Amino acid sequence: MTEMLQPPPTETSEWIPKTRLGQLVKEGKITSLKEIFERNEIIKEPEIIDYLLGPELKHEIISIDMVQKMTDAGRRTKFRVVVVVGNMNGYVGLGIGKASQLREAIDKAIKNAKLNIVPVRRGCGSWECRCEEPHSVPFVTQGKAGSVRIIVKPAPKGTGLVAGDVAKLIFRYAGIKDVWTWTKGKTSTSINFAKATYEALKNLYRLSTVVDWMR
User: Fold this and answer.
1) Which pTM was predicted?
2) Do residues 54 and 25 lie in contact, with contact meaning Cβ atoms separated by under 8 Å?
């Protein structure tokens, strides 16, 4: 895993929105990502994320691999980059980019991660803690990608991130500080481990709780 410097900030003043959602964001009619997800809107422009999160958004490279493909012209080699983005406070995204140039592959991965950004439901679901602060996950969740399966369980305050390095990175960018995890499969395959962890966090909003019923 390689930590990258922040890319230069997007010049939002020069941004010309191509979608209706982008126009609403630039006009100030939508002022937060929470509002976008509540409307079930689909984000098709990475500039929307830059506009709403700005300097809070950070990214880090999870893995860089060389991939090859046989064509009629011979063997073609490309870089495959996996990147995590997040504001370390409830939003995280995972992106993959491929290109013949490493810089181009990184840029593609960052854009893809921004388009895949999701809200992460946080809380304190541990019976040992019950502090009601958003430091862990509110209940058990799981995700799967390829042969990798991960189960994420709430942990009491001070436990830390009991997980593999790839999962730790994604939890950190999502703003989660304490969890127990159980994994199965070939976790040495970083891309599948990252996808499974991201899927587990994404699944936190696919279950309604008693709190949701009371709204």
Assistant:
1) 0.89
2) no
pLDDT digits (tens, 9 = 90+) for 58-93: 999 999 999 988 877 788 899 999 999 999 999 999
DSSP 127-182: TTT----SSB-SS-EEEEETTEEEEEEE--TT--EES-HHHHHHHHHHT---EEEE
CA dihedral (140, 35, 130, 137) positive or negative: positive
Q: In the structure encoding, which two tokens stand for residue 169, read together?
A: 């990175």
Cβ atoms within 10 Å of 10's Cβ, excluding its own = 15
Q: Is the pLDDT of residue 12 over 70?
A: no
How confident is the model over 167-191, as a mean pLDDT? Answer: 96
pLDDT at 72: 79
User: Hey, how many other C-beta atoms are within 10 angstroms of the C-beta on 122?
Assistant: 20
How many residues in the chain? 215
Q: Say which residues have a Cβ less than 8 Å from residue 11's Cβ, sequence separation at least 6.
A: none
Q: Give the closest residue to 64 by CA, choosing from 50, 77, 73, 74.
A: 77
pLDDT, mean of residues 2-17: 57
Q: Which domains does the chain carry?
A: 12-119 (3.30.160.20), 141-213 (3.30.230.10)
